[in-house]
Structures are given as C-alpha cells and as structure tokens.
Design goal:
single chain, alpha/beta, Nucleotidyltransferase, domain 5, 6-stranded mixed sheet, 6 helices, globular
Length: about 160
C-alpha cells in the first residue's frame, strides 16, 4: 500500500507574507514537492501536486485541509484523473493532518523563524536548502533515526524488487 500524501501554511516575511504548499509522503515524511505563491489560488498547489505525481507516481490517498485552493476543480480534478482517493480534514481539525502540521512546526522553528526572511527570492533559496537538508540529512526519531530519503527510497526499492 502506498501511504497518503498531504499538503498545506503561510509564511510571514518582513514585507507581507507568502503561501507555501508542500506535498509530503506520510510514511517517510519525505517532502516530494513544494511551491511558493503570493496569492492563495489553486494554481501553485496544482503545480506542486503535478510535479510530485510526475516524479513520484500516484499515492492511493491524498489528504488536505478544506482550503479553497484544495477543494477547487483544478486541484481535485488532477487527483481524480490519477485515480487518487481524496481525504479532507474536518473543519478546524489540524490533528487530522498531523504529519504536515508537524512538518510546519519543524520548518518554522528550524529555519523560518531563525532566518527571518525578507524577500520571496531569499525565502525560496532558503527553503530549497532546508528541504534538501530535511529530506537527506535530518534524522527523525519516528523513523528510527533514519532520514526521510532513506525510508522513502528504501521502501520503493523493496517494492520494486518484490
């Protein structure tokens, strides 16, 4: 079974804020794709989703909150076209998407709050570095002190060999 993927917050900059969407594999915590936007429309979410699908294939289930960027026809249409079951959190129930909520906490406290990004360009460079570190170098206690990369790709190799 492929484990669910999910997505989601907004990031305050010195001059305003931007929205971040991340597609993450629940089992391995591997960040599959991400996008930044200055508007809360669904196009940047669709872009991140399509990139994840193109590179990593389709999960069985995709979980999001009930934000309009995830409930619109463009986003849900991509999921339906790939035969992916859609799962949505209950309204106001952040714990329904605890894996992504935990990721946000980690990203904010280990990167965003420390670096206090001023511009979108600076944020994009910083997040690119951070997500590379997060996926490839940062061990997770919940993964037996392995990195998301080790768990995600080891699991994929084992499935291909079977």
């Amino acid at each position: 079974m492929k484990f669910p993927w999910s997505t989601q917050p907004y990031i305050r900059l010195k001059q305003g804020f931007v929205y971040l969407t991340v597609v993450m594999d629940w089992y391995s915590r591997y960040v599959l794709s991400w996008e930044i936007s200055i508007t809360m429309d669904e196009s940047f979410c669709v872009s991140a989703l399509e990139r994840a699908l193109r590179i990593h294939g389709s999960p069985e289930i995709f979980n999001t909150d009930q934000g309009s960027q995830y409930t619109g026809n463009a986003f849900t249409g991509v999921l339906k076209n790939h035969g992916i079951r859609i799962s949505m959190d209950g309204k106001g129930r952040a714990t329904d998407n605890i894996m992504v909520e935990r990721l946000w906490r980690t990203v904010k406290y280990e990167d965003i709050y420390i670096k206090d990004y001023e511009t979108v360009e600076h944020l994009i460079r910083g997040l690119k570095e951070y997500f590379s570190f997060y996926n490839n170098e940062r061990p997770h206690q919940s993964l037996g002190s392995k990195t998301p990369f080790e768990v995600y790709f080891k699991d994929r190799k084992l499935k291909k060999a079977a």
